Amino acid sequence: MQDTILELKDVSVYQKDNLVLNNISLEIKKGEFVYLIGKTGSGKSSFMKTLYGDLALKEGTGNIVDINLKTMQEKDIPFLRRKLGIVFQDFKLLPDRTINNNLLFVLKATGWKDRTKMDTKIEEVLDKVGMKTKGFKFPHELSGGEQQRIAIARALLNDPELILADEPTGNLDPQTSVEVMKVLQDINKAGRTILMATHDYALILKYPSKTLKCDDNKVFEVVQRAV
Ligand SMILES: Nc1ncnc2c1ncn2[C@@H]1O[C@H](COP(=O)(O)OP(=O)(O)OP(=O)(O)O)[C@@H](O)[C@H]1O
């Protein structure tokens, strides 16, 4: 299991009683950058939600960052989330506090106590996304691309073994999308595993990588044609 970050066998994903995805078997290894593509409504978000414990795994077996999704209980979900970094399309920053305080809030909520260590960590993650000088600002004082970089910094706070990014460039213009993508690429080059759901084929062409597709209730790997 050492090099395997995610392994699913015969997994089915349901929304209420509706079958969204069927018979998913796949593996993601440490260090990979994997895209998840598919039409609107094909099940990308439902797939991601199963991985971060928002949808229970009812059929099949799954292991993610050494946690068994099948036997995991409600009380184990915070532990799972701490081993994952999750990035959403709409950033989800707290509007009533500065960037530094957004990050501090997450550290405190995940058990950090030492203020000096917290400040050092915040500086480190802001530096990784090129936002070291913006910590004093409020979210609404930043552009969409900057807010997404902060959301990526937030995802890095607890050194996650896997980053799940659900349409991280969905609200950004093409140029800003490329800038955010460069940040994700750098993070991946530094050794972190990333699974990114996206509609953005231009990004995939610019940064080709292993690609999974949701279609017709299935998830399968697609081979990219050379361009
Ligand atoms: N909370 C819910 N309750 C019931 N059905 C849902 C719920 N969320 C999604 N679905 C259904 O599950 C299917 C898959 O939706 P999902 O959001 O996973 O697709 P998606 O590929 O992420 O779409 P998009 O690209 O638009 O975000 C759709 O048919 C959708 O209507």
TrEMBL record:
Keywords linked to the UniProt accession:
ATP-binding, Hydrolase, Nucleotide-binding
As given in the record, the signal peptide range reads: none
Gene3D superfamilies (alphabetical)? P-loop containing nucleotide triphosphate hydrolases (3.40.50.300)
Q: What does this protein do?
A: Part of the ABC transporter FtsEX involved in cellular division. Important for assembly or stability of the septal ring.
**ABC transporter domain boundaries:** 6-226
Q: Does the keyword Iron apply?
A: no
- The protein's name is Cell division ATP-binding protein FtsE
Q: Name one Pfam family in it.
A: ABC_tran
- Hey, which family's this protein in? Belongs to the ABC transporter superfamily.
UniProt source species: Cellulophaga lytica (strain ATCC 23178 / DSM 7489 / JCM 8516 / NBRC 14961 / NCIMB 1423 / VKM B-1433 / Cy l20)
List, alphabetically, the GO terms of the cellular component aspect: plasma membrane
SUPFAM superfamilies per UniProt: P-loop containing nucleoside triphosphate hydrolases (SSF52540)
Recorded GO molecular functions are: ATP binding; ATP hydrolysis activity; transmembrane transporter activity
Q: Which domain of life is it from?
A: Bacteria
What SMART domains does the record tag this protein with? AAA
**Which PROSITE patterns did the record assign?**
ABC_TRANSPORTER_1, ABC_TRANSPORTER_2
